[in-house]
Amino acid sequence: MQINLSYTSVTNVGLLSLASISCLQSITVLHMNGLTPSGLAAALLACGGLTKVKLQTSFKSLLPECLFGHLEARGCSFQWRDKIFQAELDSKSWKLQLADGE
Length: 102
What we know:
Mean pLDDT: 86
Strand content: 15-25%
Shape: globular
Number of strands: 4
Order of helices and strands: EHEHEHEH
Helix content: 40-55%
Number of helices: 4
Number of domains: 1
């Protein structure tokens, strides 16, 4: 089972609750409000069956290296994304469309 929590407002407590889903294997966390690095770390440690995690690149420097080592030793791989926040992308797209129409 996989879950994509990108662009949601799931909190630390909510993410930790989702960690109890025993069949959860893949999780994507990009551009979330209300989630702290410590909350994310606790949830990742609680998800025993994770095999793939996609995270915003900004979390890489906020989480301890030993966390990655521990999870990778359990068979979990990390994919890092430096994705622009969708609202920013949309406003740039509108500006480009307006410029093309002139």
